[in-house]
Every structure is written in structure tokens, then in C-alpha cells.
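Colleagues,

For the teaching module next term, I've prepared a clean inverse folding example: a structure given as C-alpha cells, and then the sequence designed for it. I'd like students to try predicting residues themselves before seeing the answer, so please don't circulate the second half yet.
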């Protein structure tokens, strides 16, 4: 069977995904509709690994499965006070603000905390997105707190430039050590330490070293944590015969995307760790070619 025939057989190609609101009415929607016109069926609000397993999908008659579940598990700082009201991951903040259109609340059902003094932890592109979103939602001040220097900031230079242009302050060589709350369990600030750069670490970047006695407090009522995200474990934790690396990413053949489980391919962030759209799209194409070979020639 060719991939074209697979698209057109009863049942066809099925794309499982969560959640339904993920399709903005733009270029992504056009891509989805293009695929649907070719016979791809999109099944929303289905959590593979929980509502249905990979083996159950095979039992239902699917011949090959591509896993592209992404790196949606937010990392946190693991410092005291992390459960205070007013601390949330960048994933949640940006999903509410953008996909769920919380900026229109109460016209839409999704609320979003609109801080007056906002701190964003991290210095990648997601941190820049979060900081600029907070500013546009009406914050009086937005600070990016990062433990290394400007030279080590992972965000693109243009993103940093645009963030500063919008009035976002950079608190560099600063590391939060503790969140501070009021009697109602709401965030009111964070304790930080000043850092200096020492010898390079495993990543080749100079390691930030705390300056003893440099503690100071930053007032804030909203903290958005944008310090990276890990492999989404919902599907992989329920698929023991698919090999993972020590970070929980799926191990694949780099040229085909084949996993260690027969007739299962994987690609994108769940394989590489958080990366880029273009890499995820490339992985999908490589896997599609390999799936075509499998359907026509075998494993
Ligand atoms: C805030 C932010 C900004 C970014 N900006 C850029 C940018 O400007 N340029 C760029 O190139 N990259 C950017 N990236 C990175 C880019 O979004 C990712 O690298 C890319 O989307 C990875 O694609 P993917 O298909 O592997 O996973 P994703 O796009 O994350 O898709 C995974 C999908 O699988 C679904 N899913 C998860 N678990 C299950 C399950 N068990 N069952 C069914 N469905 C499941 C999820 O709901 C999701 O829809 C950004 C990322 C973030 C978080």
C-alpha cells in the first residue's frame, strides 16, 4: 500500500491531537484543511497513551504510527514558594494568552493573570514572547531575570532588541533563590542573588557563580517561568517498548525517524528536545518517506 492509498482507505490517515482550540484560523488552519481535503481525518481531544494506546491503534487497523507529541512539559525553578498564586509556566501563560485568546476575557471564557510588576525567568525566545505579552496585557513593569550575562542569552538578538524597545528591563547575572508570598498565599516578590561568571561549564558557556552576601529582593505580583520544557511524557510513559533517552526523548534512527517499536516513527521536539518548527517539519517529511517504504516494501 502506498501512502496515497493509505490516505484513501476507509479509516485513512488519522491525526490524534489535543486540544480542539489549537487550530488558529490562519496559515496552520489552511495546512490542516489541505490535509483534510486529501483524506486525513483529525480526531481532536484524544490523548494517545491515555484514551487510546499505540497498540490499540494497531488493533483498530492502522498500519503505521508517527509520534509528534512535542516537548510540552514545562520546567520550573524548584525553589521555595513555587506554589504561590501568581507563578505560572510560560507554556500556560502563552497558551492562555494566544491560543485561548484570554486577552479578550470576559468575551471569552479563559482568564489570564494581568500582573502589574511582572518578572519573567529565562532568556530564550519563549521568555521574550512572555515578557512582551505581559507588557501588552498592561503591566507597569516587566523584568527578565537571567543568571548569566547578555552574551549567553539564548534568544535571538532581534527578539532581545524588540523586547528592550518595548520597555522590558533585563536583570542579568541575577538568580532567584526564593519566592515571597503574602498571608493569602499570593506572590509579592522574590529573593535573588547577584552572580558573576566563572569557568566554562559542559555547555561551553561560562558558569554563573553566586556572589556571597549579594541577596536582594525584587517586588512582583506575577512570575512567568520560561526556563525550558522537557519531553511530553503522556504517550511515552505508557509505551514501554519504545526506547527513550535519559531526558525522556524518543530514540530514533536519525535518517528515517524509526523508533525501536515496530511500525512506529517519531520526530520533532519529542525526539530532539525543544527545537524549531522547521526541524520538526523536516523530521515529518523524512518519516513520511520511510513510512511509504514500509507500506510498500516492509519494515
Ligand atoms: C512560546 C513558544 C514560541 C516558539 N517560537 C518559535 C519560533 O518563533 N520559531 C520556531 O521555529 N520555533 C518556535 N518554537 C518551537 C516550536 O514551536 C517547536 O519546535 C515545534 O512546534 C515542535 O513541533 P512538534 O510537532 O514536534 O511539536 P508541537 O508543535 O509541540 O506539537 C505537539 C502536539 O502534540 C499534541 N500532543 C501532545 N501529547 C499528545 C498525546 N498524548 N496525544 C495526542 N496529542 C498529543 C500537543 O497538544 C501538540 O498539539 C516556539 C515554542 C514555544 C513554546
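(Answer key — instructors only)
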Amino acid at each position: 500500500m502506498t501512502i496515497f492509498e493509505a490516505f484513501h482507505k476507509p479509516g485513512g490517515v488519522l491525526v490524534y491531537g489535543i486540544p480542539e482550540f489549537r487550530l488558529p484560523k490562519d496559515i496552520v488552519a489552511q495546512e490542516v484543511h489541505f490535509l483534510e481535503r486529501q483524506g486525513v481525518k483529525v480526531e481532536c481531544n484524544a490523548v494517545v497513551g491515555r484514551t487510546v494506546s499505540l497498540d490499540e491503534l494497531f488493533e483498530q487497523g492502522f498500519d503505521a504510527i508517527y509520534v509528534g507529541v512535542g516537548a510540552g512539559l514545562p520546567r520550573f525553578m524548584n525553589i521555595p514558594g513555587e506554589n504561590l498564586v501568581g507563578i505560572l509556566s510560560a507554556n500556560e501563560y502563552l497558551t492562555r494568552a494566544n491560543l485561548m485568546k484570554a486577552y479578550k476575557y470576559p468575551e471569552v471564557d479563559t482568564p489570564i493573570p494581568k500582573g502589574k510588576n511582572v518578572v519573567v525567568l529565562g532568556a530564550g525566545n519563549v521568555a521574550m514572547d512572555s515578557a512582551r505579552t505581559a507588557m501588552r496585557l498592561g503591566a507597569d513593569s516587566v523584568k527578565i531575570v537571567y543568571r548569566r550575562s547578555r552574551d549567553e542569552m539564548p534568544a535571538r538578538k532581534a527578539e532581545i532588541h524588540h523586547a528592550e524597545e518595548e520597555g522590558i528591563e533585563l536583570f542579568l547575572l541575577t538568580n532567584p533563590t526564593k519566592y515571597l508570598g503574602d498571608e493569602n498565599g499570593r506572590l509579592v516578590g522574590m529573593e535573588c542573588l547577584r552572580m558573576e561568571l566563572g569557568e566554562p561549564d559542559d555547555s561551553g558557556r561560562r558558569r554563573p557563580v553566586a556572589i556571597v552576601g549579594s541577596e536582594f529582593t525584587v517586588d512582583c505580583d506575577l512570575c512567568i517561568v520560561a526556563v525550558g520544557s522537557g519531553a511530553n511524557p503522556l504517550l511515552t510513559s505508557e509505551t514501554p517498548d519504545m526506547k527513550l533517552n535519559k531526558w525522556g526523548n524518543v530514540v530514533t534512527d536519525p535518517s528515517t525517524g524509526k523508533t525501536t517499536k515496530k511500525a512506529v516513527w517519531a520526530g520533532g521536539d519529542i525526539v530532539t528536545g525543544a527545537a524549531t518548527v522547521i526541524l520538526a517539519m523536516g523530521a515529518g517529511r523524512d518519516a513520511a518517506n520511510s513510512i511509504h517504504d514500509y507500506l510498500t516494501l516492509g519494515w
